[in-house]
Amino acid sequence: MIPLAALMFIGIGLLAGLLIGAVGIGGVIVVPTLVFFADIPTHAAIAGAMMSYGLAGFVGTLLYARANSIRWDMVGSLSAGAMPGALAGALAGNMAPAAALEILIGFLTVSSGLHALLSGAAREISRADAISNPALGLIGAVTGFASALSGTGGPLVLVPILLWLDLPVLTAVGLSQVIQLPIAALATAGNLYYGGLDLALGSVLALGLAVGTWSGAKIAHALPRSVLRRIVSVVLVVVGALIFIKIAARRAT
Question: pTM value?
Answer without folding.
Answer: 0.81
